[in-house]
Design goal:
Blueprint lengths: L2 E5 L3 H12 L3 E5 L16 E2 L12 H8 L7 E3 L5 H13 L2 H25 L13 E5 L2 H16 L5 E4 H7 L9 E5 L3 E2 L2 H14 L3 E3 L4 E7 L2 E7 L2 E4 L2 E4 L5 H6 L3 E2 L3 E10 L10 E3 L4 E6 L2 E10 L8 H14 L13 E8 L6 E4 L6 E5 L5 H17 L15 E2 L4
Parallel strand pairs: 1-2, 1-13, 2-9, 4-18, 5-16, 13-21
Antiparallel strand pairs: 3-8, 5-7, 6-7, 10-11, 11-12, 14-22, 15-18, 15-19, 16-17, 17-18, 20-21
Helix pairs in contact: 1-7, 1-10, 4-10
Length: 419
C-alpha cells in the first residue's frame, strides 16, 4: 500500500487525505500546530464560489489598490517594506494584472469551483452534517457604478455558461425579505453554495480518524531523507516517517518548507479578519458580499459571520484595529438596522491566505522531486477549492497526469544552487 504523508491539516490537507484514503493509500497528516478551532480553515466565510472566476490579479486592481493604500480602513492593503520576497511577488503580480490573463484563468477557475461544489455534495454522504446548502450568492451594491460593474461581470458569467441574475433593490428584497437594505441592487449567482467551516473541519477530522488516517498534531518538520526517486522520508519532532509520496499543503508556511528543499516560490500572506455575531439584529438567509466594500456575509445557523480585507503585511500575529473598523463601518452602510454597539464584545478572528502572483493555486508535482506534490496558493478560495484540489492531488499520486500549465507549481519556481 502506497504511503502518503500530507503536511498541513487545513481544509486542503484534510480534503486531500479524504480522497487519498478513499483511493486506498495509507495516509499520515502532519500539522505543526495543536488541534484547535482557530486556523484559517475555521474562521472563513465558508463559501463555495463558482462566481469567483476572476483571479486576484486582474485589470484595475493595481490602481484601486494604490488608492486604497492611503485609506487605513480599506479592503485591500499592501504594507510598503523593503523585502526582496515581496518585491519579487509584486513584480510578477503586476505582470499578470491584464485581461489576457483573466481570459485564460476564468474558465478554469469556474470549472474547478463547480467541480468542487459537486464533490462537496458527494462528501456529504460520507461525513457528518456540515451545513452544506446551495442558496447561491448575492453581490450587493449600494452605488449605481458598483451595480453596473457587477452587471458586466454577470454578462461574462453567462458567456462562460453560468447563470447570473441582475436584480434591482426589490428583486434582492424578494430573496431577503427580512433585511433593511441600503442598496440599489445586486447580482444573484444561484450556482454558489456554502458550508459551516467549523462543522466541515470537524466532520473531516472525525471521518479520517475513523478510517485509519493518522493526524499528528504539534509536529515540526526538521528535514528530509532523499533517494533517487525524491523524498523517501520526513524527519520530524516525532521521529522519521517513511513515505512513497509527499504532499505539501501547509498554506503560506509551504514557502519555508520549500526553502529546505532548495526551492524558492513567490507567495505572500493575505491576512483576513472575521467576526461572528451569535444574535444578529436581522437574519440573513443567503450568503452575500458587499460589492464595493469587499465584505463577506455568511449565515451560520442562527448566527452570522462578517469577514473581509486583504492585508499583505507579512506574518504578523496581531489584529489591525483599522481593518476591523472598516468591516464594521461597511456593514452599517449597507444595513441601517445595525449599529456599532452590536459588535461590542465580539471577538475578532484572523487568518493568513496564501496568495500567488497570478491569483491561481500552485497545484501539481515539483519538477525537482517527482514524488512531491504541492497544493497551496488558493488565496480566498481555499475552502471553495478544497475538494477538487484533494481529488486532483490523489489522481496525480495514482497515475501520470498531463501538466496543467495554469496551475503548475513550477511556473515561478526558482532552484537554489547547491541543492
Amino acid at each position: 500500500m502506497k504511503q502518503v504523508v500530507i503536511i498541513g491539516a487545513g481544509v486542503v490537507g484534510l480534503c486531500t487525505a479524504y480522497f487519498a484514503r478513499n483511493a486506498g493509500f495509507e495516509v499520515t497528516v502532519l500539522e505543526r500546530q495543536q488541534a484547535s478551532y482557530e486556523g484559517t480553515s475555521f474562521g472563513n466565510a465558508g463559501m463555495i464560489v463558482p462566481s469567483h472566476f476572476v483571479p486576484l490579479a486582474a485589470p484595475g486592481i493595481l490602481s484601486q489598490g494604490f488608492r486604497w493604500m492611503f485609506d487605513k480602513e480599506s479592503p485591500f492593503y499592501v504594507k510598503p517594506r523593503l523585502d526582496g520576497d515581496l518585491l519579487a511577488w509584486a513584480y510578477q503580480f503586476w505582470r499578470h494584472c491584464n485581461q489576457a490573463q483573466v481570459d485564460k484563468a476564468a474558465p478554469r477557475l469556474l470549472e474547478l469551483n463547480l467541480q468542487s461544489r459537486d464533490l462537496y455534495k458527494q462528501m456529504a454522504k460520507d461525513l457528518k452534517p456540515f451545513g452544506l446548502e446551495q442558496k447561491g450568492l448575492l453581490m450587493l451594491c449600494n452605488t449605481d457604478y458598483g451595480l453596473e460593474k457587477e452587471a458586466r461581470l454577470a454578462e461574462t458569467s453567462k458567456k462562460l455558461g453560468m447563470r447570473a441574475d441582475v436584480l434591482d433593490k426589490a428583486g434582492v428584497g424578494e430573496l431577503e425579505p427580512d433585511l433593511d437594505l441600503n442598496i440599489v441592487g445586486g447580482v444573484h449567482y444561484p450556482e454558489d453554495a456554502h458550508v459551516n467551516p467549523k462543522a466541515l473541519m470537524l466532520a473531516l477530522r472525525d471521518w479520517l480518524t475513523a478510517n485509519a488516517v493518522k493526524i499528528l498534531w504539534n509536529t515540526e518538520i526538521s528535514g528530509w531523507r532523499k533517494d533517487e526517486k525524491g523524498i523517501c522520508a520526513v524527519k520530524t519532532s516525532r521521529g522519521e516517517l517513511p513515505c512513497d509520496a509527499l504532499v505539501i499543503a501547509s498554506g503560506i508556511w509551504s514557502v519555508e518548507l520549500l526553502k529546505t528543499l532548495g526551492l524558492k516560490l513567490p507567495m505572500q500572506a493575505g491576512k483576513g479578519y472575521s467576526m461572528l455575531l451569535k444574535e444578529p439584529v436581522q437574519a440573513f438567509t443567503t450568503p452575500a458580499i458587499l460589492s464595493e466594500a469587499k465584505v463577506a456575509i455568511s449565515p451560520l445557523g442562527s448566527s452570522v459571520r462578517f469577514g473581509g480585507t486583504m492585508e499583505i503585511a507579512g506574518l504578523k500575529e496581531q489584529v489591525n484595529p483599522s481593518r476591523v473598523e472598516g468591516i464594521m463601518k461597511s456593514v452599517l452602510k449597507y444595513f441601517p438596522a445595525y449599529q456599532k454597539q452590536d459588535f461590542e464584545g465580539t471577538s475578532v478572528w484572523y487568518g493568513f491566505r496564501p496568495c500567488t502572483p497570478d491569483g491561481l493555486p500552485y497545484l501539481g508535482k515539483l519538477a525537482k522531486y517527482d514524488n512531491v506534490v504541492l497544493a497551496t496558493g488558493h488565496a480566498m478560495l481555499g475552502l471553495s477549492l478544497g475538494p477538487v484540489t484533494g481529488k486532483h492531488v490523489t489522481e496525480l499520486l495514482s497515475y501520470e497526469q498531463p501538466v496543467d500549465a495554469l496551475l503548475d507549481p513550477n511556473r515561478f519556481m526558482q532552484v537554489y544552487s547547491g541543492f
